[in-house]
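Hey, can you fold this one?
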Amino acid sequence: MFYQFCLSVVLGIFVSFATNCSAQEKSAGVAGSQATQTYGKITEIGKLNEARASHTATRMNDGKILIAGGMERNGVFFDVADIFDPKMNNFARAKNKMSVERVSHTATLLPNGKVLLIGGWSNRDVPEMSAEIYDPKTEKFTAIRNLNRRRSGHTATLLENGKVLITGGFDGKENLSEAEIFDSQNNTFTLIGKMRNARSVHTATKLADGRILLTGGEVNRGQILSSAEIFDPKTNNFSLTKVMNVVRYKHDSILLADGRVLIFGGSDERDWRGQHKSAEIFDAATNQFTPTGDTNFARFKIDGTAVLLKDGNVFVGGGGEQAEVFNPLTNTFTKTAGEFGIPLHYATVTLVDDERALIVGGYGNGTRETGPISTNRAWIFKL
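Sure. Predicted structure:
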């Protein structure tokens, strides 16, 4: 998520910038070079009503996508939402506003079809404890009881029992180890104990057996983790696994069709200067991480920018000027056709249907004078 950027807002400090072969296409490379293999294509479509980054994008049961909150630049945060209609390929303003502005929050689709939005930043002081529910039937956002902790850069993961696990994040002073559970039956949050490590801007991936894998993150300012742990919803306990091959935060992870987990990108303690191209695979049977092929581009600020396609490949659409696809059979990343033109930090990628994904917003590297400025552009990836 967005913790490093938002923390710079709070402190008033400027951010330092420094498969299937038949589905592949051949496209011309740079003039004079040989043709390169690509997989699928990204195509720009209509624009959002606002330029956004560090927003959320949630596919609802009717197939439409709720795009909520985010920011245009330092201090310009949003309490408005757009709805993407996949049949029309366009964006419409949601009829009602959120209860507060939110940046670096989370949004989770609940079993009842509603969307839970929690935490994030609404001002330059401290992260939110507030939470709200979006009901697509009434098209209204309704505030509910608060979280037990202020959180930004946290995770929120739907469990098999319909409850939501919320882990870590930054409370305005320190990174958190506390976890809590949201129960949609009574709209309440309950603390359940602590992770083995405090973590912020980490990842949470639901495994095939319903447990949750947590990887990396920042434990203290400038101290990045290689550790990982697993939450067992049957016992509400966290247990450590083997460590990753590198330290990572602001990275991404996704469950593969075969039950393994792909973890890729992110950065080390150098942040912008320490971006990773490396990737690795977690095997729940052995609790071990194994290196795999590198991405084509160093990518960070990418949580939630990978989706699993119907053919078992993984589309990656954030943190770089081009998108790419991971093939778990060959452990390699292949570029897609088309370019974004900017790295799309803190963009969102959402599966639209079996063959398409929606890429929305994000920001480029910016300048020391302007800081990061978000885009209102959007793209569709198609096989």
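The radius of gyration is 19 Å. Let me know if you want another pass with a different chain boundary.
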